[in-house]
Amino acid sequence: MGRFINPYTDFGFKMLFGREMSKDLLIDFLNDLLIGERVITDLTFLNNEQLPEYQEGRGIIYDVYCTTDTGEKIIVEMQNRSQVNFKSRALFYLSKAIANQGLTGVTWLFDIKAVYGIFFMNFQLEKNNKLRTDVILADRDTKELFSDKLRQVFISLPMFTKEEDECENDFERWIYVLKNMEKLDRMPFKAKKAVFEKLEEIADVSALSKEDRDIYDHNLKLYRDYMASMESAKIEGREAGREEGREEGREEGKIEGIEEGRKEEKKAIARNLKSLGTPVDIITTATNLTVEEIEKL
């Protein structure tokens, strides 16, 4: 086990960015992320569980949900697996935070505050090979900003390949540390920025209480089991596709083999997630398989 917390785990991510004692870490990161756009001086953490407005509705639980001292809402998420309609899901999260600002009565004139969504991803965003994808509401033709009330930033951590000495600014330094934290034996960049000294203190696994250490160890096991199951499923899917392609020996057979391989990969992922006790609705979202197909595995 490394010296520092793995931020890909649910507990580790919230330990670093979702607590009052580490609030200045989140403020510093957000300011480096949005440099030249806005400056955040203070944050207040909000209830990250947003209950549905009606009994049959679907609630939302954010990783980190906070508001700035000037009223903007900020949602920060860490996602380890790609999901069907992931971009739509992110948009739904932000739309919910916008809609929740509505007030009853005729005196409210839609005076909403901007909502920011920051999405760390431990995967590639579809076919996009960018580290960072910034989404704004803009006029299609003039490219001018149409409204500043909705803002999204998607950060694909696997797309960051720079080494420590290649980082050119504080945003890249943050990304380097977050991507490599569990493997580090020392915290870099402390001489360049004092916030990394505090990060070193908070992220030190040996400083956790026994209760927090037990929770973290459990989270870490779930994370590693999941990553291992995903890698195994990919290997099984590729092998199934190759075997099918070899047996057919024709172009049509190769195409069918690839499709069959993809299907087998989804089944393998579902089988591994099912063995880990993952709820069926999450498995269907992750694999696009039906409930009936999952139950037969």
Q: Provide the low-confidence segments as ranges.
A: 51-59
Radius of gyration: 22 Å
Question: Helix proportion of residues, in percent?
Answer: 40-55%
Main sheet strand line-up: 1-4-5-6-8-7
What is the total domain count?
2
Inertia-based shape: globular
Task: State the oligomer.
Answer: single chain
Q: Encode the helix/strand succession as letters.
A: HHEEEEEHEEEHHHHHH
Structural class: alpha/beta
How many strands, which pairing sense, and closed or not: the largest β-sheet? 6 strands, mixed
Total strands: the figure is 8
Tally the helices. Answer: 9
Distance between the termini: 34 Å
User: How much of the residues is beta strand, in percent?
Assistant: 15-25%
Task: Compute the average pLDDT.
Answer: 85
